[in-house]
Amino acid sequence: MNDTPLAAPGSATLGELSADLVRQTLLDAAEIAAAITLPRFRQGIAVDNKWSVGFDPVTEADREAERVIRNLLGERFPDHSILGEEWDDKAGTAPYAWIIDPIDGTRAFVTGVPVWGTLVGLTVNGRAVAGLMAQPFTGEIYMSLPGEAHYHRGTEHLPLKTSTVTELAKAKLTATSPDLFLRPGRDLTAEWQRIQQSVLTTRYGLDCYGYALLAAGHIDLVVEAGLKNVDICPLIPLIENAGGVITTWDGGPAEQGGNCVAAATPELHAAALAMLRG
Q: Do the Cβ atoms of 92 and 79 come closer than 8 Å?
């Protein structure tokens, strides 16, 4: 376990890695993953369930896409750690760790809804410093490195900027599902209802795409519970470098997942935390 204190948001760097190398690695990872996932999307592929009670789907596309990304990262950065959704973690000797979720939103993937995405992120001493969300069906890539966050689609290349909304009453909110807030051993329905009833409108089912839309200024607030590190870590740089704020519900770093809130502005983030705390 790394005991180095996390850098403050906006102050993290790539260490000794070059921005060009990290940027190209993220793009390469998205490309090779798309070659696995896209031909299988809307093709009725077999689905396995990782849970004995409930439903947590995984497909051949999840496993194979993560495998090819791992191979790329392992060859390019043999001393880096690699943490993923479908395979065992690889411990490295350098302070760098790559975080992979080959298909974030597998439920969307298996039901033909194009709001899933491939997530790849980089941490330095535990702090998320670079990340990518790629949606190959729409051809969109949302990518961030220190000091920059951009949207790519074909020849389109635009900076990402969160909205200027500061009040809950004017905020557009999303969460993957209201079911996230009521699970065995976890009942956060009262907290969720408070914030959901305080905003302008709420949309469900966007998975990682909701965070990308927040970074692009279309959504103002994302509230989730029970996230894993692979669900959120690659998205943290997108939010922060687009001008937003993302933390756990208690205001701590979000790199390890848990209950997380992302907001377009510091004011909206503070208001959301206050509402969640009651």
A: yes
Instruction: Name the CATH code of domain 168-277 (choices 3.30.470.30, 3.40.190.80, 1.25.10.10, 3.40.630.30).
Output: 3.40.190.80
- How deeply is 196 buried, as exposed, middle or buried, from its count of CB atoms within 10 A (0-12, 13-18, 19+)? middle
* pLDDT above 80 (res 26): yes
Residue 21 has pLDDT above 80, yes or no: yes
Annotate 50-101 with DSSP letters as a single string. Answer: S-SSS--EEEHHHHHHHHHHHHHHHHH-TTSEEEESSS--B--SSSEEEEEE
Same fold, 19-159 and 168-277: no
Distances (CA, A) of 114 to 45, 110, 142: 16, 10, 15
Count CB neighbours of 54 within 10 A: 10
| pLDDT tens digits for range 107-166 | 999 999 999 999 999 999 999 999 999 999 999 999 999 999 999 999 999 999 999 999
Supply φ then ψ for residue 217, to 5 degrees: 90, 10
* Rounded average pLDDT over 27-51: 90
In the CATH hierarchy, which fold is given to the domain comprising 19-159? Fructose-1,6-Bisphosphatase; Chain A, domain 1 (3.30.540)
Query: 49-64 pLDDT, tens per residue?
Result: 765 545 567 899 999 9
Rounded Cα gap, residues 168 and 268, in angstroms? 6
Q: Domain residues of the chain, as ranges? A: 19-159, 168-277
**CA 45 → CA 39, 84, 136, distances in Å?**
10, 22, 17
